[in-house]
Amino acid sequence: MKIDPRRSSAFTAAVDTGSLEGAADQLGITSSAVSQRISALEQEFGTPLLVRSRPCRPTIPGMRLLQYLRRSLLLESEFLAEMGMDAGPARVALAVNNDTLATWLLPALAPILAAEGLLAEFVLDNQGHTFTLLEEGRVLACISGKAQPMHGCTAMPLGLMRYRMVASTAFARRCFPDGIEREAARVAPVVVFDRKDSLQSAFLLEHLGLPEGSYPCHYVPASDPYVHAIRLGFGYGMLPLEQCQLLLDTGELVDLALRFPVDVPLYWHAWRIQPQRVERMGVALVAAARAVLLSLPDEEQG
């Protein structure tokens, strides 16, 4: 059996855009044609491949097909390049967390992508959820907080991202004149990235015994605005050391819990069998990450 490229393109476009209408716009056809092509593909495989929800998402067999299609495109591009044919730069979809993208990743990755002739498509999610995007076939590799690789993949330790619980100097004076303590934390607003962000809630539960929902929260789901909100005194929250060290040094921010940094381990997940360019990218990225991140404990290095 040979997979029809028009049908497979309709399937991947629906997953990428999240809708049949989005896929139709991308491919320059009608949404009815997209639906028909996906239905024909499902008939060929004898199983549903796409849940037609909003957004569209692949079924378990659809995830496996998506993984195959993503890797096939890269392998084809690499083969054409080896044969001296201009296939254009290959695109690699990577799932990463916002703080990683906002701090060390871009400087580390820029020379690697240029050297390998790769284009990056970043898909953002919490480090506890990027693994799911790889599992679903939406990306070819991910940076995740999970240490255990899924079947067919490897997981390489990158290092630790250190976070500090910080606030503006004025906010700290106003809300925590005696330091961060339980009763004051009940009424002082916390700045949280989004509903998946558990850094603040885990810290407050562990150190102050405050369960989630027992204190007010702002939600600011973008990296730079999140930092800005804390600087403006919206509330207090966790920032990576790379984003707050200079602000701590100048006194614009204060560390509310100097003795209790939070270290988040990160791992690079990728397929064992993959195009050489992507494999080289992964090896170089792991080395670059280890040069800037804190080292994981020996037992977690693998």
Question: Key features?
Answer:
single chain, 302 residues, alpha/beta, D-Maltodextrin-Binding Protein, domain 2, 7-stranded mixed beta sheet, two-stranded antiparallel ribbon, 13 helices, 47% helix, 20% strand, elongated
Question: Could you explain how this protein is built, in words?
Answer:
The chain is of the alpha/beta class and 302 residues long. The chain folds into two domains: 137 residues, Periplasmic binding protein-like II (D-Maltodextrin-Binding Protein, domain 2); 103 residues, D-Maltodextrin-Binding Protein, domain 2 (3-Layer(aba) Sandwich), CATH 3.40.190.10. Helix content is 47%, strand content 20%. The chain is built from 13 helices and eleven strands. The strands form three sheets. Strands 3, 4, 5, 6, 9, 10 and 11 form a seven-stranded mixed β-sheet that branches. It has a two-stranded antiparallel sheet with strand order 1-2. Helix 1 packs across helix 2 and helix 1 packs across helix 3. The mean pLDDT is 91.
